[in-house]
Amino acid sequence: MAVEKIILGIDPGTSVMGFGLIKVVGKKMEFLQLNELQLSKYDDHYLRLKHIFERTLALIDTFHPDEIAIEAPFFGKNVQSMLKLGRAQGVAMAAGLSRQVPITEYSPKKIKMAITGNGNASKEQVAKMLQQLLHLKELPKNLDSTDGLAAAVCHFYNDGAVTAGKAYSGWAAFVKQNEDRIG
Fold this sequence. Notes:
Number of helices: 6
Mean pLDDT: 88
Helix content: 40-55%
Radius of gyration: 15 Å
Distance between the termini: 47 Å
Shape: globular
Largest sheet: 6 strands, mixed
Structural class: alpha/beta
Strand content: 15-25%
Oligomer: single chain
Strand order of the largest sheet: 3-2-1-4-5-6
Low-confidence stretches: 161-165
């Protein structure tokens, strides 16, 4: 009997959080859902973080993913933007860790490479390839949701290997692997 698992992919953001879910049966994947959480309507950054945490918990409680793949923040020049993006990623990770769901981070380049074969592919190229791979009838207007789906598909292609990205199975594992970051 083929092993089944569900992978939740998340593209964290402070204005939009994209997410996608795939079901893996044996060596085949099938599309479950993609969507986004619009956060720009909230002026307060902390309120946005609360909504990210709550929505991630709701997704976990609804779909019961076996694993979470999350896009790591890219390195930009604006330190404040990086800090806010890191917080968004952190609360999404905290939601997963609180439910004991293993999490793996992937860089944007690694995700693009896994989906298109080109680490510098555009959002549109990634979305089109996902449309082909998963037989999606149409693509959403906002491509943040396809970025979340791409993280899940990247994780599938990497077979969830711990060496594929940074994986954490719970708070203890996260703390142990990041002792240098803890004061």
